[in-house]
Amino acid sequence: KATGKFFKLEEIRQHGPDSDRPWIMRGNKVYDITDWIESHPGGKVILRAAGSAVEPYWDIFTIHKKTDVYQILEQYLIGHVDPDDLVDGQVPKGSIEDPFSGDPIRDSSLVVLTDRPCNAESPMSGLTSFITSTALFYVRHHFWVPQIAKESYKMTIDIGDGSDEKTYTLRDLQTKFPQHTITATLQCSGNRRAHMNEGSGRDASGLKWGAGAISNAEWRGPLLRDVLADAGFDVDSPPGDLQHVEFYGEDTYSTSVPIDKVLDPRQDVLLACEMNGETLTGDHGYPVRALVPGNTAARSVKWVNRISLLEDESQSQWQQRDYKGFGPNETRDTIDWDSAPCIQDTPVQSAITTIRPDQNNDRSDSMVVEGYAFSGGGRKIVRVDVSIDNGKTWTQAKIEPHKHLGHKTWSWSLWTHRCRRPPADSCVIVKAVDEAYNSQPDSFGPIWNFRGVLANAWHRVRIDKLF
Ligand code: MTE
Ligand code: MO
Prior knowledge:
Blueprint: E1 6-7, H1 9-14, E2 23-26, E3 29-32, H2 55-60, H3 67-74, E4 77-81, E5 111-114, E6 119-121, H4 124-127, E7 139-140, E8 155-158, E9 166-168, H5 170-175, E10 179-187, H6 193-200, E11 214-222, H7 224-230, E12 244-249, E13 254-258, H8 259-263, E14 270-272, E15 274-275, E16 278-279, E17 289-291, E18 304-310, H9 317-320, E19 349-357, E20 366-374, E21 381-387, E22 395-396, E23 398-399, E24 413-420, E25 427-434, E26 459-462, H10 463-466
Parallel strand pairs: 1-4, 8-18
Antiparallel strand pairs: 2-3, 3-4, 5-6, 6-7, 8-9, 10-11, 11-15, 12-13, 12-18, 14-17, 15-16, 19-20, 20-24, 21-22, 21-25, 23-24, 25-26
The structure holds ligand MTE and molybdenum atom.
């Protein structure tokens, strides 16, 4: 192996993702990864680092930080970075490509939990109008925002019977098929995890989302069912062995949903090409995202470029090792991940978003409480109960009569409650009931789980907190 060679950074940069022989750096070592790409478990995503350093990526894909991975890479060593190009023996930061450099500029009122990757809650103004504006829609990324050119975008469909794959351009998806418009709420499985931590006194792992990892938008695009039919799949009498539909995102995120959800035209599963009447933005999946209404938002894969029909559900970590609910006794050390199904449909939820003085009322002691209520599976919210005396007595909030588009109630209901202002140390509490008469548990202790998912106990807020 020609390990005695030195390369200028300038020359390394030429060996980018589109070159015949892509190279990467790790430390001051240079590797030609051309022959590794085929067998790299993460596939071509490693090309994202070509022409530059692999460390920023391996900081995100921490699975690589192991000696055996380093040893595999060593086989492809071709030399070192020219010492003249190093500063203090290291490749200068400025010449290392930043995976997040293509991330969009975001609205400053988003409530940012982490910056890279971006995880941000919708602010109160995004949670108090039926449609959340696209700029204020919460953002939940596992990686960077992929840069996808409309002209080169292709959706590949594999119907799982060994026949040739079919590909579709964005134009195909928008012109060859009837377009459907639905309103649908996306809620992260971790929404209200911070409330769960506080309420139970036990910290669950994961981002400490408040009540803002949820938003509602209008989505438009073809039914996935129609696209599968066009690709040659018998949607009316499907073969019994293919039970799952897997979505792959350009950022390497992937997950699946049961095929029955997709094949029922009344379940409104879309390949969304538009959000709130406009082309999707980078943060929300441009050019195409799967939109699986009624399911936990983790299944609505952004930047989706490949869809496969499978016998078994996705083997990805987001299907198998995350987004599952366990008993309050289980911990990361005791857990048998295979013992629980992944989250698809979700339980009934509600939260208080504002408590403020009532401007429309002359009495200075009157107040307005507002919030949202939402249930999975398209189940409508039929009642919202509010208490202003720590749960001793209850009254019903007014559910706003918003127009829901789609075959079921895929969107949240916003509610308003006007009442006398109780003493400052009282708690306002909300709980909602969906059309299956499911209600929320009164406290977090019994539903605590180490991943902090499905946090839907009554939302309690001291009235002096939100004024
Ligand atoms: N799709 C891809 N490709 N990559 C992701 O990181 N995050 C998922 C889902 N789809 C994710 C994804 C999760 S966990 C959530 S909650 C929603 O997208 C968030 O969607 P939003 O950012 O549009 O609000
Ligand atoms: Mo999520």
